[in-house]
Amino acid sequence: MSDEKPDTNTEKPEANAEKIEARTEHSQPSGASRVRGVIQRHPWLRIAGAIAALLLAIVAVRWWWGRHTHETTDDAQIDGDIYPISARITGPITMVYARDGQFVSAGAPLVDIDARDYEVALARARAEYEMALANASASQLEIPVSTVGSTSQIRSAQADLVTTQAGVVVAQKQVDEAQAQLAQANAAAKTANADVERFTPLIEKREISQQQYDQTLAAADTANAAVAAATAGVRRAEEQVRQAGEKIRQADAGLDTARATTMTVEATVARAKSSDAQAASAKAELQQAELNMSYTHILAPVDGIVGR
Length: 308
Fold this sequence. Notes:
Number of domains: 2
Mean pLDDT: 77
CATH topology of the largest domain: Helix Hairpins
Strand content: 5-15%
Order of helices and strands: HHHEEEHHEE
Low-confidence stretches: 1-28, 44-65
Structural class: mainly alpha
Helix content: over 70%
Oligomer: single chain
Distance between the termini: 97 Å
Shape: rod-shaped
């Protein structure tokens, strides 16, 4: 019986456990009740929950859209293009803007090269170009001046030649007139001298009066003087012809000189073309200097990642 006591003792703890569990269930509230209590104490949790639900909905929609619009693969490969960048000019580097592995956008600065020497070269090229332009402009202005001057000299020389030729004609006419006067004077002098020879024996014989003889001598002297004068006139006229002929030769030489100015015009045109060519060369040098100046600032050609 003593054996039965232990059985009685084991039944009592089970009953106690049932009572404890019953009391525990009545004393602890459910999980839903606790959540509602927390939300009531903190209303902002209701807004946070709504936002979280909205974000989850957006993520789900994007996931669904990606699954239906993009292919998925577990062995994808990425293709890329390499753009080698090297300096086009020499010089010390003054600034590095991008590091290895850094993402840069197209046009972003990468490296600066010391630009002081290139600034000097650019200023010199600009000055030489401006000087070449000025020389070319001056040469172009010389062309019409030279052309007008040449044309004017030719026309003036031609006019002088015509004038001198007319002077020769006039001088020759004067020679003809002087020679005619000389011929008349010679004829009158011959007659007067003949009268003197004829009257001289008569005066000796007293067959004519002394007055008549004196008049004959005077007429002969006058006729002889007229011959001398006419002879001098012929010489003067002939000298004028000679001078007119010399003027013609001078006018011919002047015309030749004036015509030679056309070669000066051609030389002026050639100088203008040479000046234009020098200006074009100076412009090319200026453009190269500007390019070299731009090369001192290296930019990213495309979007990409900097790498060695």
